[in-house]
Design goal:
binds alpha-D-galactopyranose; six-stranded antiparallel β-sheet; 410 residues; alpha/beta
């Protein structure tokens, strides 16, 4: 009898463990916003194995891996223009003479995770073979290469139903048994924040970003987004953001031509949004300022806060915006942002400030509670909320403060 009981208990434990690990694959691949690097913003389809290996090496030597970046993602343009006779995708033999498995091995050997790109349509946005009708075989191929992340685009999809197309690919990835983060990229056209949770771990919320801070500059017959135009679309959907289902306001343009101040603000704002952080610059040619921005651990900790809450906006006098991100342990990140074209004053009598947010259950009366502050870019203590704060904020600049409840002294 005891033996039967022991065997039964053993079987139940195994079932429980199997179930727990299945659930893990399904729901916890990205408890924090994924961080990585992607080829597209700088190189588009002009990529090749030798150049990318240098990039992998720089990823590590620049301190990005140490700072928390993990994924190394090849965007569009990695494959040949045609599938092979058996219907399989083929890595472009000129760009990747040693094949994709060898390249993935190189990435893994450096302690990074490997990501790749395809599209739900018949062709990718750059005209390479898309996955439509090949979902399961493509997923198996990626798994055999050791792919850890798939960005899945939305060009040439005709009348496809977006939620269904993404669910099909999601199921195909899961059927491989390999944990592969699924990055949905339909540009926010079908309100993915309403259905993408459980389908993918992150979903683009807008069209493509460009290295422009607040002007949307047309390129031919198409007008990409700017940093601020994307920012302004995020607040309304902040309540959908959270662990394993991240609103993705697109990749970073840090180091791609904006001013250092603008790069710093762009990075800070994306961290305030709890956004996935995909650098998109040439890692071989980073200025010290670019490295400093991308690897600011204190700023990254705000992005990676376990609560995963995206910031909301308050407007202060003098047109300065205050973005507020509730953090764990009753801490708070405050990002003062001057999007105007001239310097603005911040004159803040803390005790008059009340910050409330139903969504996160935040209700702070600074007249009743004191916080100590730390400046995330000066990287030093910045006093507390007992005294008035007077500051000047340059055009397009931010001041990011991390507030901690002060320990009562009496
Ligand atoms: C779309 C995506 C971009 C990039 C390109 C590749 O425009 O939104 O991020 O992947 O396709 O062709």
């Amino acid at each position: 009898m005891n033996l039967i009981k022991t065997i039964l208990t053993g079987c139940l434990s195994i079932l429980w463990l199997a179930n727990a690990s299945a659930q893990k694959t399904e729901t916890s691949l990205a408890p924090l916003p994924p961080m990585g690097w992607n080829t597209w913003n700088t190189f588009q389809t002009k990529i090749n194995e030798d150049m990318l290996k240098e990039m992998v090496d720089r990823y590590v030597s620049s301190g990005m891996r140490e700072a928390g970046y993990r994924y190394f993602v090849l965007d569009d343009g990695w494959m040949s223009m045609d599938r092979d006779a058996a219907g399989s995708l083929v890595a472009d033999p000129v760009k990747f003479p040693h094949g994709m498995k060898a390249f993935a091995d190189y990435v893994h050997a450096k302690g990074l995770k490997f990501g790749i790109y395809n599209c739900a349509g018949s062709k990718t946005c750059a005209g390479y073979p898309g996955t439509r009708g090949h979902e399961y075989e493509d997923a198996r191929l990626y798994a055999s290469w050791g792919v850890d992340f798939l960005k899945y685009d939305w060009c040439n999809t005709d009348s496809l139903n977006a939620p269904e197309a993404y669910k099909t690919m999601s199921a195909a990835l899961r059927a491989t048994g390999r944990p592969i983060v699924f990055s949905i990229c339909e540009w926010g056209d079908h309100a993915p924040w309403l259905w993408a949770g459980g389908v993918g771990e992150l979903y683009r919320t807008t069209g493509d970003i460009s290295a422009s801070f607040n002007v949307r500059k047309p390129i031919g017959n198409w007008t990409p987004q700017s940093v601020t135009s994307i920012l302004d679309l995020q607040e309304a959907i902040r309540k959908y953001n959270g662990p394993n289902h991240w609103n993705d306001p697109d990749m970073l343009e840090v180091g791609n031509g904006m001013s250092t101040v603008e790069d710093r603000s762009h990075f800070s704002l994306w961290c305030m949004l709890a956004a996935p952080l995909a650098a998109g610059n040439d890692l071989r040619k980073m200025s010290p300022q670019t490295v400093e921005i991308l690897t600011n651990g204190e700023m990254i900790a705000i992005d990676q806060d376990a609560r995963g809450i995206a910031a909301f906006k308050m407007v202060l006098p003098d047109s300065v915006e205050l973005w507020v991100k509730p953090l764990k342990n009753n801490e708070l990140a405050l990002c003062f942002f001057n999007r105007t074209g001239s310097t603005r004053n911040i004159s803040l009598n803390w005790k008059d400030l009340i910050i409330t947010d139903k969504f996160s259950g935040t209700d702070i009366h600074f007249g009743k509670e004191i916080f100590s502050m730390r400046d995330m870019w000066a990287r030093k203590a910045a006093g507390d909320t007992k005294s008035k704060m007077e500051k000047q904020l340059a055009s397009h600049d931010v001041l990011v403060l991390r507030l901690k409840p002060a320990v009562a002294t009496n």
